[in-house]
Design brief:
By secondary structure, this protein is α+β, with helices and mostly antiparallel strands. The chain has 2 domains: about 210 residues, BirA Bifunctional Protein, domain 2 (2-Layer Sandwich); about 40 residues, SH3 type barrels, CATH 2.30.30.100. The chain has a 7-stranded mixed β-sheet, with helices on both faces. A 5-stranded antiparallel β-sheet has the order 11-10-9-8-12. The N and C termini lie far apart (about 55 Å).
């Protein structure tokens, strides 16, 4: 993969919003590198891509297994003028963007899990890690995206959640550069839309793809657990949970299918 080939596949919107692309053969973490770039004063909107990561990071301190050329390992840095609380739903917008890019390339049957997992048959295909960074009174978001393309049996065993890869879903996976360009094109398009109109235009799209909507779930957030029926998300991207005490708006936590009845 090289920068010029990738740039040739980007649409005009992506070209305008990405100032620099850096491609590494191996790195500790594309998100870590993006954060280092911001902290050192390199504040352009940029893309960091790696063929492999030695310390790939997922949500809640988990490792993202990143063998060489076995997936997409991508971080996109973008400056925002919006207040921090207005950025809450960006993780959902990113997940929608990944799913829509894969669907454009012929991958069917994908669903979403709040707040930002892309699943196939309840197995994780793609994960997202967003990190907020302030620098010189400016606000930056690093959008970390990982997509499994071809994981060995050993790599799958190292993942602590049910996972899958593209080669298990489709007969022929798109090339990494084509997939990467599709992801960036869709993400840049949706981020522009979010900045101009917020999450409300994405609410219906998310709820139509949410694999746990109208299903009893358990929300785990630290040591706390909350059981209820998922009602989907609202116009701010918060998860609405029907509990025995009424509807609650959830802004943080991890979703699991509930093994206990709602009445407990």
């Amino acid at each position: 993969m090289d920068e010029q080939t990738l740039r040739n596949l980007l649409n005009l919107e992506s070209e305008k919003s990405i100032d620099r692309i850096q491609i590494f053969d191996e790195i500790d973490s594309t998100n870590s590198e993006a954060l280092r770039q911001i902290q050192s004063g390199n504040t352009q909107n940029r893309v960091v891509v790696a063929n492999s990561q030695t310390a790939g990071r997922g949500r809640r301190g988990r490792q993202w297994v990143s063998p060489k050329n076995a997936g997409i390992y991508l971080s996109h840095t973008r400056r925002f003028s919006m207040e921090a609380n207005a950025l809450q739903a960006l993780s959902l917008v990113t997940a929608i963007s990944v799913l829509e890019a894969l669907r454009e390339l012929g991958v069917q049957g994908l669903q979403l899990k709040w707040p930002n997992d892309v699943l196939f048959e309840k197995r994780k295909l793609s994960g997202i890690l967003l990190e907020l960074q302030h620098q010189d009174a400016s606000r930056f978001v690093v959008f970390g995206v990982g997509v499994n393309i071809e994981l060995s049996a050993g790599s799958l065993e190292r993942i602590d959640r049910p996972a899958t890869d593209l080669n298990s879903i489709v007969s022929e996976s798109p090339s990494r550069v084509i997939l990467l360009a599709a992801l960036l094109n869709q993400l840049c398009r949706n981020l522009e839309k979010y900045e101009s109109g917020g999450f409300s235009s994405f609410e219906e799209r998310w709820n139509g793809l949410d694999c746990y909507r109208m299903i009893d779930i358990e929300i785990q957030n630290g040591d706390s657990r909350l059981i209820g029926k998922s009602l989907g998300v609202d116009s701010e991207g918060s998860l609405l949970l029907q509990t025995v005490k009424g509807i609650q708006s959830i802004n943080a936590g991890e979703v699991f299918p509930s093994l206990r009845p709602l009445s407990e």
